Amino acid sequence: MSETDVKLSPAALATRAAIVDTAERLFRTMGYQKTAVADIARAMKMSPANIYRFFSSKSAINEAICGRILEGLDAAVWAVARGQESPADRIRALFRLLQEQTIALFFQERRMHDMVAAALEEHWAVIDAHILAIENAFQHIIEDGQAQGVFAALDPELTSKLLHCTCPLFTHPALVEQCSQTEDLPQLSRAMAEFCLRALRPDAAAA
């Protein structure tokens, strides 16, 4: 929740949420670029000026929508990280989740793709938060594995970043779009998970 949200009344927070709901629905039907603030206002039977009472710009609405989508993915990521499976199986599951959710969120709903691409290219704050959530989830699993003696005693923070660095080919929307015609991305994500797990083995670090 932003500082702006904290200062708003419950009624104002509800109006903000309704604006985001309406904008997201229009994005999914009309497309991110074609939806204007005037369209959102018209759908809500209010003036554009009233929309701007709650959001400073269309970009602020865009970021709110993107943030809500990514929060759902972050929750799924943490559900895997905190699961009861072995640390190795959680690493496998997290790679699989990231690959599958990239396709589900950004390609099965093509009209949302441009917004996500813009978020990545323009370094929206919600993207930074999402990256941090993934790396923290990897770190949580790594530390569990180290505590159990099944992962090498590597720097867990650095190792989590390195694990995440292996994912963009099957999680970055632009790269997925380029590679999906020539690569079996589910198989690639599985192979990459196994490659990383070999590097995490205690005997691999000793070698």
Task: Provide a descriptive summary of the structure in words.
This protein has helices at residues 3-7, 10-30, 37-44, 48-54, 58-81, 87-106, 113-121, 125-148, 156-165, 168-171, 173-179, 185-200, 202-206. It is mainly α. The protein has two domains: 3-56, Homeodomain-like (Arc Repressor Mutant, subunit A, Orthogonal Bundle), CATH 1.10.10; 59-206, Tetracycline Repressor, domain 2, CATH 1.10.357.10. Helix 5 runs antiparallel to helix 6 (87-106).
Keywords:
13 helices, 207 residues, mainly alpha, Tetracycline Repressor, domain 2, elongated, Arc Repressor Mutant, subunit A
Condensed summary:
The chain has 207 residues and is mostly helical. Helices cover 77% and strands 0% of the residues. Helix 2 (10-30) crosses helix 5 (58-81) and helix 8 packs across helix 9 (156-165).
Mean pLDDT: 88
Structural class: mainly alpha
Oligomer: single chain
Helix content: over 70%
Number of domains: 2
Write the layout of secondary structure elements.
Blueprint: H1 3-7, H2 10-30, H3 37-44, H4 48-54, H5 58-81, H6 87-106, H7 113-121, H8 125-148, H9 156-165, H10 168-171, H11 173-179, H12 185-200, H13 202-206
Helix pairs in contact: 2-3, 2-5, 5-6, 5-8, 6-8, 6-12, 8-9
